[in-house]
Design a protein that fits this description.
- With about 300 residues, this protein is mainly β.
- It has one domain: Beta-galactosidase, Chain A, domain 5.
- Helices cover about 0% and strands about 45% of the residues.
- The strands form 7 sheets. A 9-stranded antiparallel sheet has the order 10-11-12-13-27-23-22-17-20, with no helix packed on it.
- A hairpin with a 5-residue loop joins strand 22 (about 230-235) and strand 23 (about 240-245).
- The radius of gyration is 18 Å and the shape is globular.
- InterPro entries: Aldose_1/G6P_1-epimerase, Gal_mutarotase_sf_dom, GH-type_carb-bd, YihR-like.
- It holds the Pfam family Aldose_epim.
- This is Aldose 1-epimerase.
């Protein structure tokens, strides 16, 4: 058998919970509870289109013109979304990660982001994927192993599954106070607007319908443990749920309308993010990692 486009496959399981973590990008290819997908999978024979399940490091979302300034120095990274003049989703999506501590119900993926033109900083990254009776947890730690302070942001790009069918009939429940508006051509931030009472208010739960969404949301409602939740109820009676911890100040929702036919609107992209789109230019909530500093972010998913 030829090697999968996503590289080595690392299955983990706990009871009825099953997931597959992949070498390329260090992301998650599938997660199901029994036969029901919780996160929409992509095929072992396919690539991770739409950043499917992939960590977005050292910045999530778009960076306009691929340019930013940090500590008085200008930097330029390659434009990976050239049609829009943006660099998108960081530098590690297509890099191989190494698996460690594969123990049946967990695996830790590791890589080092070496200094490079445009990002002359050195980070060690680890992502622990673990399954328990409560579902999936994902714990990401970044450590600055270089000699200089480094700008850092984290995101990841799973898609919640509605079960059989498309997301149009799925019931989305998600409470946030603010939507980050973007321009239609480059999808870079233009301002913010209140969510309550508008087209993107899903706080009481309602069907997505034909609404197209590709926006980041802030001021997330949180439970007593500090977690924010996104819930997607399928027409099979099951609900896929994703939670983010307090380091994730933003969640991007993406209905997948830009994906290829057959993949459009079959899952809802729910992207935990520590900073907003274009953060390396705006500086909004970019983590400053001094040499030796580390930061840890957690999110997870389950089926109810």
């Amino acid at each position: 058998m030829s090697l999968a486009p996503s590289g080595q496959q690392y299955p983990i399981a706990h009871g009825q919970h099953h997931a597959v973590i992949v070498e390329v990008g260090g992301g998650i290819r599938k997660y199901s509870a029994g036969e029901r997908p919780v996160l929409e999978p992509y095929a072992e024979t396919g690539m991770a289109d739409g950043a499917h399940g992939t960590p977005l490091i050292p910045w999530p979302n778009r960076l306009g013109d691929g340019r930013y300034r940090f500590d008085g120095v200008d930097h330029q990274v390659p434009l990976t979304e050239p049609a829009k003049g943006n660099a998108i989703h960081g530098l590690l999506r297509w890099r191989p990660w190494q698996a460690e501590d594969l123990r049946g119900d967990r695996v830790t993926m590791r890589t080092r982001l070496h200094p490079r033109p445009g990002y002359p900083f050195c980070l060690d990254l680890s992502i622990r994927y673990q399954l328990t009776a409560d579902g999936l947890s994902v714990t990401t730690t970044a450590t600055n192993v270089g000699d200089h302070a480094a700008p850092y942001g984290y995101g990841q790009h799973p898609y919640l599954s509605p079960g059989p069918g498309r997301i149009d009939d799925a019931v989305l429940t998600f409470a946030a106070g603010t939507r980050i508006a973007t321009d239609p051509d480059r999808q870079l931030p233009t301002g913010t607007e209140a969510v309550t009472g508008g087209a993107y208010d899903f706080s009481s739960g309602r069907a997505i319908g034909d609404l197209e969404i590709d926006y980041a949301f802030a001021d997330l409602a949180r439970d007593e443990a500090g977690l924010a939740w996104v819930r997607l109820g399928g027409n099979d009676g099951a609900t896929s749920e994703l939670w983010v911890d307090e380091t994730c100040r933003y969640v991007e929702l993406y209905t997948g309308d830009g994906l290829r036919p057959g993949r459009r609107r079959t899952g809802l992209g729910v992207e935990p993010m520590t900073c907003p789109p274009d953060a390396f230019r705006s500086g909004d909530h970019v983590v400053r990692l001094e040499p030796g500093d580390r930061v840890t972010t957690r999110w997870g998913a389950k089926l109810t």
